[in-house]
Amino acid sequence: MNPEQWLAQYDEKLKQAAAGAAKADKALREVGGSATSQDGEITVRVSASGATTGLVLRPGVRDIEPEHLARQIMELTRQAQRVAGEQVVVAMQEFIGDGPALDVVKAHLPEGHTSDGADEPMNLELKRDTRADDEYFDNPPEVVN
Fold first, then answer.
1. Cα 14 to the chain's mean position, in Å?
2. pTM above 0.85, yes or no
3. What would the pLDDT profile of 24-54 be if each residue is shown by its tens digit?
4. Which candidate, 68, 66, 86, 72, places its Cα nearest to that of 44?
5. Taking the mean position of all CA atoms in its chain, how far away is CA 1?
6. Crossing angle for the helix pair 66-96 and 3-29, to the nearest 10 degrees
7. How many Å apart are CA 24 and CA 77, to the nearest integer?
8. Can you tell me the distance from the alpha carbon of 62 to that of 41, in angstroms, rounded to the nearest whole number?
9. Number of C-beta neighbours around residue 24 at 10 A
10. What single-letter DSSP state applies at residue 140?
11. Three-state secondary structure along 36-88?
């Protein structure tokens, strides 16, 4: 093979790699996850990196004890991150295929991904405070992380 042919083939490979990288970049920009509580009062949205991009709290959350509300938001965030993680795995699988490189991607997902076998049913019990406002504010619940 003469040098000009080799260079032309190499240039073509570079163009294919750049097109693949652009395709993967576009796919990852569209990745996101969301999770909504069973009662529909809380919705969390996250980006491909797992960062929270949206939080919707509907009026019914006012009756939820703060520590239970915090726990539910955190659990919904983890669930949304797992959904986004699965989308990242699918996008990267198309670009790099299965193998060690994909294993590295999977290992760096904040909460794993939905096909890693670690999913458990959500058990988020809501406890509503039924005390009168005066009693609640005189003796507020302790919020612990």
1. 32
2. no
3. 788 888 888 999 999 999 999 999 888 999 9
4. 72
5. 49
6. 160
7. 24
8. 10
9. 15
10. P
11. ECCCCCEEEEEECCCCEEEEEECHHHHHECHHHHHHHHHHHHHHHHHHHHHHH
Contact 46, 34 (CB under 8 A): yes
Contacts of 104 (CB under 8 A, 6+ apart): none
Place of tokens 């569209």: 30
H or E element that contains 4 = helix 3-29
**Neighbouring-strand partners of residue 56:** 43
Per the CB < 8 A criterion, the answer to whether 42 and 61 are in contact is yes
Structure-token pair, residue 109: 């997902």
- The DSSP letter of residue 115 is T
Measured at the CA of 77, the angle between CA 71 and CA 79, to 5 degrees, comes to 105
Give the mean model confidence (pLDDT) for residues 80-102.
Answer: 87
